[in-house]
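note to self: dont lose this again. the chain is below, predicted strucutre after it. 371 aa total, dont forget to put it in the shared folder this time
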Amino acid sequence: MSNLQTPFRYDFVGSFLRPQALKDAKAAYQEGKIAKEEFDKVVNDEITRVVAKQKELGYHVITDGEFRRTFWHLDFMWGFEGVDHKATGKGVQFNDELAVLDDTYLVGKIRAKAHPFVEYFKFLKQFEDENTVAKYTIPAPAQTFQQMIVPFNYDNTRKFYPDNEELIQDIAKAYKDVIRQFYDAGCRNLQLDDCTWGALVGDAAKQRYKSLGIDLEEVKDQLLRVNNLALEGKPADMMINSHICRGNYHSTYFTSGAYDTVADHVFARENVNALFLEYDDERSGGFAPLSKISDDKKVVLGLITTKSPVLEDKEKVIARIHEAAKYIPLERLYLSPQCGFASCEIGNKLTEEEQWAKLKLVKEIAEEVWG
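---
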């Protein structure tokens, strides 16, 4: 087992553009032209290739690119008892287009069972070596909580949970169980992807919650509570980090706004080892909220965008790292893209070659800044 721990000075969030061979195989499988065994072989082969590419670039962390899932978050939720889903062609309105997502909802109480993602991790873990460690990405407990209390799910959720506290307790308990499953499978680096905090920032979010008659401060308390409850008693040698995002679908976004209004909660009080933070453009605001980050956390600055193929100016990125270091010591800072390259299988609007060029740039800048 590799003893390396995330994050690394040059790192990445987790998802990669789906290769054409994988897209073709999935279409063929869905159309009944190939058997599941044949499809699974293609998936395994493409994961093997993407891991080799990560190693070739000199990265110390490897993921499976999220090649086994359709959506970065919903597929994981389907692995709990009490959760079902249906493709209806509906979804969530992003800035420039509708993010088409499966309706995902409760059909009973949320309970853990043997989670398929743990088996997916086991396949990835075989590629660890003395220079690399596998990490797995799953949606944060707060993301599952939010999924079940959004307006279109609210009435259905109340059939099973009369109040949010019982829902929070069951989600936390289910996550604890799955975290232990990952640990027992040899996982020592887990990442909680979390768009809930990004959905709370900015004036638009404030107005949205006000129109729903929801107390925004109460929402923040609940998100923090469910995340921290799920992490209680986690193994001491297991790194659990969080990635905070404002939406990443086909190179568009969901919200804009600085971290100021959520920093006192997630930056100061969430019990994770490191935060991967979206900071690729002006929508993210300034670095001043970093001063709220508790002393026990590392911070991965997402200064390279995955939403555009255009390569950033190296010197400008280096200048931004040093600007951030005014609020948190440079030795606690790390560098990555702001999000994955394909949070959903549709992917962002760039090529695989452009994707790898972005990662080469991250590594080059990190080695120049930290040596």
